[in-house]
Amino acid sequence: MVNNLGDQNSILNQFMVEIRDEKLQKDSMRFRRNLERVGEVLAYEISKTLTYKPIEVRTPLATANAQVAKETIVLATILRAGLPIHHGFLNFFDQAENAFISAYREYEKDGTFHIRFEHISSPSVHKKVVIICDPMIATGASIFLAYKALLEKGTPTHVHVAALIASKEGIEYLRKNLPMKKTTIWVAAIDDELTSKAFIVPGLGDAGDLAFGSKKSDVSEEF
What we know:
Blueprint: E1 2-4, H1 12-20, H2 28-47, E2 52-58, E3 63-69, E4 73-79, H3 83-92, E5 97-107, E6 113-121, E7 129-133, E8 136-137, H4 141-151, E9 158-167, H5 168-177, E10 183-191, E11 193-194, E12 200-201, H6 207-212
Parallel strand pairs: 1-10, 4-5, 4-7, 7-9, 8-9, 9-10
Antiparallel strand pairs: 2-3, 5-6, 11-12
């Protein structure tokens, strides 16, 4: 199932306008905060799909009945761009366990690239609900790599993939490669175009650079 929350009228669309705006992107603090806010909206929507159990809570005056999430949640993030979204999810799922995956695009001289996996730090995901956060689903390859890495930690009951923007091509790739009966994809927008270098258009640019600064070094190659 694919849920495009951008098709609905909500405050989420305002956050997305600010995230895409090249002038507002110059304020990295605002950009990070908007990523976090989108994460909070996605977290709230995903929370509606969880299984709940009844509990009693004692107030100063009496006992109240409530429903709380039954499953254990593991929030998984692909470094580094996913960190602000991850923080937004933690604001809502503050009792969740956490996993971090180091992966990046390694480019060849001809402009082609492959996804290079370095490390995963994760608790067991066995019989837990996993939420994988990443700002962009371009080709879908990094999400799939993260999914396979997490499976080494057990078999989750359900996987939610949460992103700001996805390409149609990326969505189709995940549909073909993830077990869709146990996977739900959540996005704030789906864009039509994916360039030959796998950049989403109109997209928003490089989310990691906009949030945390350029990865390019000013040091001369001779050093």
